[in-house]
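Data availability excerpt. The first of two example chains:
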Amino acid sequence: MRLMRIASRLVGFLVVLTSFVVCTSPFWLWPRRHMRLVRRWPMRLACAHCAALGRLLGLSVTLKGDAWRLQQGGAKLLVSNHLSYLDVLAFACHFPSCFVTSREIQRTPFLGTLVTAAGCLFVDRQDKRRLGQEVQELADALTDGMHVVVFPEATSTNGDAVLRFRRPLFHAAAAADVPVLPLTLNYTTVDGTSVGPQNRDLICWYGDMGFAPHFLALLGLRGVCAELVVGSPLTAGGDVADLAGSAEQAVRSRFIPLSGPAPVLTPAMEA
C-alpha cells in the first residue's frame, strides 16, 4: 500500500511539475531586471500549483488566531518560523504570496530557473553588499500590493525552538510602509499521530538531510496536519530591531516545540 501511494503521488508530482513548467514558460526567459512588471502572475501560478501539491501530499492546514487579518487591508510582510520545504505549501494553501529564498537556490541548476519563473525574491546570506538592493526589491513587491513571506530564522530547524530572527529584511516593511504580520506554523499530526521527537524528521527538513530520501518518505505518508496561527499586525514604523523582536516574540509565544510534550496554551496564546 505504501509503495503504491509513493508511486501514485510521484506520478502526480511530475504532472503538477510539468503543468507548472508549461504555465510559467513565458516567464522563463523574461529579463530578471524587468520581473517586477509581471511578478504577480507567475506568483499566482506558483501558489496555485503549490496548493495542488499540498493536496496531493495529504497536507491539511487549519488557520487559527486572527485569520481574518490576512484578507484585511493591503499587502503585508508575513514572517514565520521555518521547519521544512512543506512550509511553502502550507502558506500557499491559503493565500498567494511572493516567497523570499537564497541566492544559493537561485544558482542551483533547474531549481533556480523554477523559483525565478515563480516570481521569488532572493537574498544573499553570504554577501551583504547587495542587501540594500534586495531590501528594495522586497519593498517594491509590497508596494505593488503583494504579500511577501520571509522566514527570518534564515534556516529550517528541527522544531526544538524558534531561532533568533534576522533583522535586515524587516527594513522592507518600513520602506513600503506596510505592517508586519507574524504567523506561527505548527505541525500537529503525521498519519494521525501527534508530532514529536519520534516522528518529526518525517516532516522537518534541516541540517544535512538529503532532499530525495526525505521527499520519498514524505510521499509514503497518509497525511500531515498543520495549524497556521495568525497574530496581530505590527506597525512598521520606528526601530527595526524592536519590530523584529516583537515579531519574533509573537511567533515564539504560539509555537509548540516538537522536542517534547506540547505546552498548555493560555487563552491569550490561542487568540
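And the second chain:
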Amino acid sequence: MSQENFYLVCWIWAGIALITFFVLRFVKAPYGRHVKKGWGPEISNRLGWVLMEAPSFLIILFFFLKYEQSSYASTLSVLWLLHYANRTFVFPLRLKTAGKKMPVAIVLSAVFFNLVNAGLNGFYLSSYETYTNKDFTTWNFLAGLLIFLAGAFVNLKSDHMLISLRKPGEVGYKIPKGFLFEFVSCPNHLGELLQWGGFALMAWNLPAATFFVWTGANLIPRSLDHHEWYKEQFPDYPGDRKAIIPRML
C-alpha cells in the first residue's frame, strides 16, 4: 500500500470514529453495568475482555518482532505492549465479576476496532516511520511520555480502586470515593484518554492521532453513560462530580 493510500485509510477511519461518537450518545454499549438482553449470544465477561484486548497486544507484538524498527519506534511499541499486557492478561483476571456475561456482538465489534487500530499503528511503525535518536530529546516526546505515564498511573490506580470496592462474593455496585473519584465518575477512562493522548504526542503521526480520536469516541460517551447511571442508582451521588473531565464534562 502506498503511503498516500495508507493515510487515506487513516482519515476514513477517523471519520468513522466521529460518527461512532454520536451513535454512542444514543445507544449504550450493552456490557458491564449497562448489559441487557436482546443482543444475541453471550460469553463470560472475563473471557470477553481477554478476546477483545488480545488483538491490540498480539498485532503490535508481531510487528515489533517481525520487522526492524528504530529505537524510537521500538519505544512506542513497548509502551503500547505494556499497556495491553495489563489490559489483556492482568486486568480480566482481577475482575470480581463471577457469573457476569457480555454479548458476543460486543466482543466481535471490539476485536474489529482493535484489529484496525493496532494494525494501522503497527504497520506505520514498521513501514513508514522515520524517527531518529534525536527525537528522544524533542518537546513532544518528553511531554508525551510524561502525559502517558501520568495517564497510566491514573488508569491503574482507578481500576484498582474500583475492583477493590467489591468484597469476595459481592456483585453489586457502590459509590467510589477518594482520589480523582472526588472530581469525576470515571477517572479510569480519563487516565486512558491521557495515555493515548500522550502516545499520539510522542508518536506524532496520523495513525496514533486516529487512535486517540477513537479512544475519545468510545470513552467519552461511555463515561457520560456511567455518570448518568450513578445518578439514577444512587440518590446521594455527589452532585459536583463530572463524568470524565474535572469541572468540565
